[in-house]
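hey team, just a heads up i'm posting the complex here instead of the shared drive bc the drive is being weird again. everything in one block, sequence lines first with there labels, then the predicted structure for the whole assembly after. its two chains so it's a bit long, scroll down
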Amino acid sequence: MQALSSPHFDRASLAPSQSWLASIPAGMKLGFEARGSGAGAAFFAWAQRDPFEQLSDAYTFMELRWARPRVGDSLYSTLRRPIVTIQRDDAGESVDLLRHDVWWPREQYVCLLAKEAAARSFPAPELRDWPFAVNLFARTLVGTDGGLMTDVSDVMDGARIELITGFELVVGVIAAGQRSPAIEVTVGLW
Amino acid sequence: MAERTTEAVRIGVPARDVAALDVSAGSLITVVDLAGRQGADCLALGKDGGISCTRTTRSLNRSLFPNIGQSIYDDNGKAMLTLVEDTSPGPHGLLVPPCDPTMYRLRAAGCAHPSCHDNYHKALAGFGIRLGHTPPSICLFQNIRIHETGQIAIEVNRSAAGDKISFRAECDLIFVVSACPNDVFKRPPLQPTDLEVRIEPSRTE
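-- predicted structure starts here --
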């Protein structure tokens, strides 16, 4: 895996399994663009001032009372604060909190991002306290028996997800798989 | 065949309180809802450092909660607990975090309200363990459902007095049980009640 970084809030193109880490101010827009059908990414976030305040599926479920967030919904931190708000989601309900990625062993991606955070002096959690990723461009359906099924989300070339940061964050992204299409990550105020 | 371990243990968990037990691999852990409709928020910490992980468990089982024979996994995908019996009508939850001081403050119940969050950290401190985060709970007897629309509904628990759920420990671990102090959301208002935890050591050859 190769780690990319984007300290100037511009654009990064992530090939499969490449990672990206940045510190992003509050109110900034964070865009993800799929460069083909089947693209996906794991997204991590935690507070710049306190790495133990993290993006959390569980707290989002509790505060939102909704399993598949939609445009206008916020995702919540472990302190029950809106950490990002979904502003655009072309594929629809394609920010997946129900299952975490199984694309890489957790130890592998945590070590990769933790090393990059340390190299750039970003505050980061202890390895045992590292957050779990939210899947982008993925969708899980729930059966009446509680079974979880992968839904083939309608992710086409150019499909975008845009998030607005609720406070100053450190965010990490890892593009999916080994042969998936690339992901473009953009940070800015467009 | 020789018995490896000692006698079974039966421990009461008073309403709003917590118990943490040192459990050997192969032991049977049973949580009993003594009065009915009481939630039991649980965590497991492996002696190898793994922590029970609701999200990994959902992902690996492809289910909101394990079925009989399926497991609760740690954050690295290692099986920690396997569900062996459930006499309750269910459901149980692996979706939401434990109640915490922030939740009670936001719901005007005050930061001093007892919480599963504080119970966990108090119990783990007794083992010299300090976590920087609070893992989401294994919410036994929690009546939580996801409707087809995606709406998450949490309603009054359906468990009756004496209902129980049992897991086999797949590794040496610390099992933490909090008799959930939440009296804010329940309709009609219900007071928290006691739980019981039973540990039956394994029998090995």
